[in-house]
Amino acid sequence: MSRLLPPLLLSLLLLAVWEIACRSLQVPAYFLPPPSAVAVSLVERAPLLAGSALQTFRMALQALLAATLIGGGLALAVSMNRPAERAVRPLAVALQVTPVVAIAPLVVIWSGLDHPDRAVVALAAAVAFFPIFSGVLTGLKSAEPDLERLFDLYGASPLQRLVRLRAPAALPFALEGLRVAAGLAVIGAVVAEFVSGSGATQGLAWRLLEAGNRLRTADMLAALVCLMAMGLALNAGVALLERRCRALLA
To answer: Which of 60, 107, 208, 234 lies at a C-alpha separation of 20 to 30 Å from 227?
Structure first.
């Protein structure tokens, strides 16, 4: 309660100020609806928003799993070979700095116009890839030099060095990269659905576009609330995983 109470009180205070300001200043509902109107929209559109949120969450989770497997596996592979790391790292950075909206049309074509969900997952995975790759690679190289020399002294095999020394050292870095990637996967899924140009996925991004075209601002904010809740849930899941892993290593 000591951790939850301060943010809860601050959120309630901000909502109260927002509600009072909208009513006292008579702000038009299409410009900025009060929180009560957003709450009504959440209740009335709950089944529709829940289905769209589930669809977006599914695509974001698939993207996060793909980014974890590809990014973690690639980091593990190149960490054992310095020339390979020097060759791969610039390409990973190039993928990270390339805007997702720039490659979206290509990915949509490659995925097939009849499968927009594949394009969304691929684009979201591309966004979430670099934090995991960078975190795992940095962690694998962060083992204590004295311990590295000790393993050399005892003639440890590369597999023994990886399992008993480098993997435990890399775990905190990998989990931090996963925490960042979890948020980016949600952002990437929403942005990818925006730029894919198709409402076939019927995720929360489509609900945002649909409400925006009709100037239904309360519905837009209700969809944003669902997105924030989804991001917080993913972040909490990664934090729980991190605590469990730290407890096992302690």
So the answer is: 107
Count the neighbouring beta carbons within 10 Å of the beta carbon of residue 29: 13
Q: Are 206 and 193 in contact (CB under 8 A)?
A: yes
CATH architecture of the domain 39-249 equals Orthogonal Bundle (1.10)
Per domain, the residue ranges of the chain are: 39-249
Q: What is the pLDDT of residues 92-138, one digit of tens each?
A: 888 888 887 778 778 878 877 777 788 888 888 988 898 999 888 88
